[in-house]
Design goal:
Blueprint lengths: L3 H4 E4 L3 H10 L1 E6 L5 H12 L3 E9 L3 E4 L2 E4 L3 E8 L12
Antiparallel strand pairs: 1-2, 2-6, 3-6, 4-5
C-alpha cells in the first residue's frame, strides 16, 4: 500500500466542494488514479484523524488544450468525495 500522502494529492476547494462540506459534511480530494475506495478511506482517516463513513470516486478525463497550432492534452485524474461522520470536520484554512 502507498503512503497516505501519495494517495491524497490535494483537497479541491471549489464552490461546489465548499457547499458539499457545509451541507452534507463531504470533503473533495484529488487522489492517485490507482487508489481504490479502501485506500482512500484509510489515508483520510490517518492524515486528518476523522472517521469516514462513505467514499465515492470519479475518474476525470483531461481536457484537450491548444497553444497556437499545437494541441496537447492535460492528464486524466481521479476525484474522491469523502463523507465524514457527523461531528467530524476537516479544516483546511485554520485562520478563517
Amino acid at each position: 500500500m502507498k503512503d497516505a500522502h501519495q494517495i491524497i494529492r490535494r483537497p479541491l476547494i471549489t464552490e461546489k466542494a465548499t457547499l458539499l462540506t457545509e451541507r452534507d459534511n463531504k470533503v473533495v480530494f484529488e487522489v492517485d488514479r490507482s487508489a481504490n475506495k479502501i485506500d482512500i478511506k484509510r489515508a483520510v482517516e490517518q492524515m486528518f484523524d476523522v472517521k469516514v463513513t462513505d467514499v465515492r470516486t470519479l475518474s476525470m478525463h483531461g481536457k484537450v488544450k491548444r497553444m497556437g497550432m499545437h494541441r496537447g492534452r492535460r492528464p486524466d485524474w481521479k476525484k474522491a468525495f469523502v463523507t465524514l461522520r457527523q461531528g467530524d470536520k476537516i479544516e483546511f484554512f485554520e485562520g478563517t
